Amino acid sequence: YLKQNGRQLGDVGQDVIAVGDNMYVCLNGSNYVAKLNGYGIEQGRVSFTSYANLGAVRYAVEKDGYLYVSSYGGYVSKIDAKTMTYVDSVKVGNNPEQVVVSDGKVYCINGGWGYDNRLSIIDLNTSKAENVETVYNGERVLTYNGRVFIQGYGAAYPDYDYQIGEYDVKTKSYTRLATATNAVVGNDKIYLANSETDWTTYATSVTFSYYDLKSNKLVASSFLTDAPEELASSSVYGMSVNPYTGDIYVLTSSYTSNGWIYHFDKNGRFVKKLSSFGISPRKIVFLK
User: Fold this and answer.
1) CB-neighbour burial class of residue 109 (10 A; exposed 0-12, middle 13-18, buried 19+)
2) Can you give the pTM of this predicted structure?
3) Contact between 102 and 143 (Cβ < 8 Å)
4) What is the distance between the alpha carbons of residues 41 and 201, in angstroms, rounded to a whole number?
5) N- to C-terminal Cα separation, the chain
6) Longest CA–CA separation in the chain, Å
7) How many Cα atoms are found within 13 Å in the side-chain-facing hemisphere of 102?
8) Strands (E), 147-257
């Protein structure tokens, strides 16, 4: 971005999504959403500072030419993805985090800094939101063939119990499935990483597993067949799956220096390791 635009992108990159050959980046500190082309050249932006009640930008999802963006004032806002202009907002819960779209609805999980346990469901036809109780301190929402899954801390600090579960869209009920600090959907699976650090010794241990979305079974064995040994004691900060190839990426952080990206093929075979060229890599997106 710096090379292509002659200036820094902004403060605290919170989220990035790929839509066709464009990228949309949420800047939490600078509080705007920027549209970039595939070369990183900015095509436009919309600032949330002009709307005092919206709060700081968090996550985004795109559907039918519009972005739906969560922000810490407790809103999900609709943005025209072509013109990067603000359309309107819907009130949801406290400190909303990740948003996804499934079957004509936007699903937004509310973290509440540990004290909200609601999933907000926005009907795209009516722009009305419904709140249902799921997991406390939720962080991520995942979708698969109309199904909705939630990953979160499970409680306020320091009592995290790190969980992922399914919200049944028919019965409007939540069922815990597994323990995980990170989760991503790909290849008909939910890939799970449970990365926990003992802050008295600073020792980190990681276990990998997956939930088979076809058989609806949790598989305790790792989805990685020949991971480098050091990955077992690294802090997993994020995971991504290439939707075009099925390749898996595990992103790690030391919180003080450049992180590492571990690349595996869709069968979990190790391909290579490379630097993230920045602290705490969270996500990788893939352009067509």
Assistant:
1) buried
2) 0.96
3) yes
4) 44
5) 19
6) 52
7) 18
8) 147-152, 163-168, 173-178, 182-186, 189-198, 203-212, 217-219, 235-241, 248-253
Which of 209, 204, 222, 137 lies closest to 177 in space, CA to CA?
209
Are 11 and 28 in contact by the 8 Å Cβ rule? The answer is: yes
Task: Write the CB contacts of 88 (distance below 8 Å, at least 6 apart in sequence).
Answer: 77, 78, 127
Question: How many Cβ atoms are within 10 Å of 89's Cβ, its own excluded?
Answer: 21
Q: pLDDT, tens digit, for every residue of 221-248?
A: 999 999 999 999 999 999 999 999 999 9
- The residue-averaged pLDDT of 133-155 equals 97
pLDDT digits (tens, 9 = 90+) for 199-208: 889 899 999 9
Kind and range of the H or E run holding 2: helix 2-5
Q: Reduced to 3 states, what is the DSSP secondary structure of residue 53? A: coil
Token digits for 27?
Answer: 């800047």
C-alpha–C-alpha distance, residues 273 and 19, integer Å: 26
DSSP annotation of 48: G
* Angstrom distance (rounded) from CA 185 to CA 279: 24
Task: Quickly tell me which residue has 């995942």 as its tokens.
Answer: 142
Contacts of 273 (CB under 8 A, 6+ apart): 228, 260, 261, 262, 263
